[in-house]
Amino acid sequence: MKILVVEDSEERNSLFREWLKGHDFMIALDAPTGIRYLQAYEYDVIFLDHDLGDRSNVDSEDINTGYQVAKLIPNSINKNAQVIIHSMNPIGSGNMLKVLNGKAVHRPFGPWIKSAVK
Predict the structure, then answer these.
(1) Residue 111: predicted pLDDT
(2) Confidence at residue 118, expressed as pLDDT on a 0 to 100 scale
(3) What single DSSP character describes residue 75?
(4) Top CATH class, 2-116
(5) What are the residue ranges spanned by the domains of the chain?
(6) pTM listed for this prediction
(7) What's the longest Cα–Cα distance across the chain?
């Protein structure tokens, strides 16, 4: 599986690295990098955090949020990827779900991720 992870927490990324062993995955620490990866490569699964840059409860219109990545997915080469929003920010997650128009699920971060990519 080819997987994109948009996540800035090194603690969470360490867990992603462990859980996603055996898969071809890339980690974007910020929205601009996530957008570049989204436009350059096709993925089977995309994991999105909302709040990036070591911040919490960030407004979705901020340029460094998962929302900025999410809003490009429907018109990208990744429009058919499975999108999993793992953000703990309920408002930001809701905004991403809306822009993805039913083509994503919200599952706050947890160990279930390992089983999601088997």
Answers:
(1) 59
(2) 58
(3) G
(4) alpha beta
(5) 2-116
(6) 0.92
(7) 35
Residue with tokens 């490009």: 72
> Residue 66's Cα: distance from chain center in Å?
6
- For 46, other C-beta atoms within 10 Å of its C-beta total 27
b/e code 24-41 from CB counts within 10 Å (16+ = b): ebebbbbbebbbebbeee
72 exposed, middle or buried (CB, 10 Å; 0-12, 13-18, 19+)?
middle
Bridge partner residues of 105 (DSSP): 84
Mean pLDDT of 32-54: 97
Cα–Cα distance, 60 to 93 (Å, whole number): 9
Per-residue confidence (pLDDT) for residue 69, from 0 to 100: 98
- Cα gap 38→69, rounded to integer Å: 8
Question: What does 23-62 look like in DSSP terms, one character per residue?
Answer: SEEEEESSHHHHHHHHHH---SEEEE-SB-SS-SS--TTS
The pLDDT confidence band at residue 10, using thresholds 50, 70 and 90, is very high
